[in-house]
Amino acid sequence: MSAKGARAKSTGAARQQGPEPAMTKSKKAPHLAAVEAADDSAPLSPPAKGTQHTIAELERYATLLRIDCVRMLAVAKSGHLDSSLSAADVVAALYYRVLRHDRDRPRWPGRDRFVLSKGHAAPIQYAALARHGYFPHEDLMGLRKLDAHLQGHPDMTRTPGIEVSTGSLGQGLSMSLGIALGLRLDRIDDAHVFALMSDGDCQEGQTWEGAMAAAHFRVSNLTAIIDYNHLQTDGTTEEVMDIKDVRKKFDAFEWDAVEIDGHDMGAVVEALEWSRTRERPAAIVCQTRKGSGVSLMEDQFGFHGKPPTPEQAEQALTELEQKLAGQDAELERSR
Where are the strands (E) in the chain, listed by range? Predict the structure, then answer.
């Protein structure tokens, strides 16, 4: 499949909650036990199908998520901003168009599952969850603070919408495979599992054990998305441990694989929707730029795990807010 091929029809759009949910006051989101208790009393019917956002609207949402990430990291003074920015377009496409999910029932059995294998990029998922109303938007400013529920890596026991606690690279694909097989055993046929991985994940042997098992069991409800941004803590991926042509590797493991520009929203949506139609596990290798959307960080070594300085945050927010204003104006003209 080419990035410019015919667009596949989506098999299930996300329930849309709107980009600006009501801001309620809370110090932390409820513990997982409270979330599950609420789910127990909820009907099992699927959520209403939401509006299918246009590519231009999805690009605007990606900008909003990037703004949230910069603000979070500027306040927290720690974390992984550039790794979150490189995944912003994929996460926006997932949460605003592709995933079937329900903020009122985070544990609804028929939901799609999203596993952030590159758990250090938690801010980008937190931003998407907050803008969909899983918890108050103001909670984002508690990132990495003591007694806050938004930890440096996702915590499934404290944050609604988090499927798996992640962070140690290389484990996410195997966990996603286990979830996909569990859905098969439970005969939940419509639910799909999307695992967002880093190039660092692809340097770990467990990833390829999972890839081998997924093909062996012909797990068709699993999509691996590789955020291939080519930069790590100690240098380029090619210098640290060259993983070379990742698409060909997944091909060799008998997956249906495609390689795209991970910042081309049209190609991202097309590939994600295509992946739901396969009879084998699917892999989407996204060529991305670390720090995408913020010129001072984009494709630059040295920002991994380092928050922006106040001056850098101000520059980044100015740049992103100008882009958002332009996107708003363009959308208004198109109406």
Answer: 113-116, 193-198, 222-228, 231-232, 235-236, 256-261, 282-287
Could you tell me what percentage of the chain is helix, strand and coil, using 3-state DSSP and rounding each to the nearest 5? 45, 10, 45
For residues 223 and 220, give the distance between their C-alpha atoms in angstroms, rounded to a whole number: 8
Q: What is the pLDDT of residues 267-308, one digit of tens each?
A: 999 999 999 999 999 999 999 999 999 999 998 888 888 889
**Whose CA is closest to 269, among 51, 53, 49, 19?**
53
Name the pTM for this structure.
Answer: 0.86
Among residues 102, 67, 107, which one has the least CA distance to residue 85? 67
**112 CB-near residues (< 8 Å, 6+ apart):** 12, 98, 99, 100, 101, 191, 192, 193, 194
As a whole number of Å, the CA-based R_g of the chain is 19
Cα→Cα distances 40→22, 45, 112, Å: 25, 13, 18
Q: How deeply is 163 buried, as exposed, middle or buried, from its count of CB atoms within 10 A (0-12, 13-18, 19+)? A: buried
Exposed, middle or buried, 210 (CB in 10 Å: 0-12/13-18/19+)? buried
pLDDT tens-place string over residues 172-211: 999 999 999 999 999 999 999 999 999 999 999 999 999 9
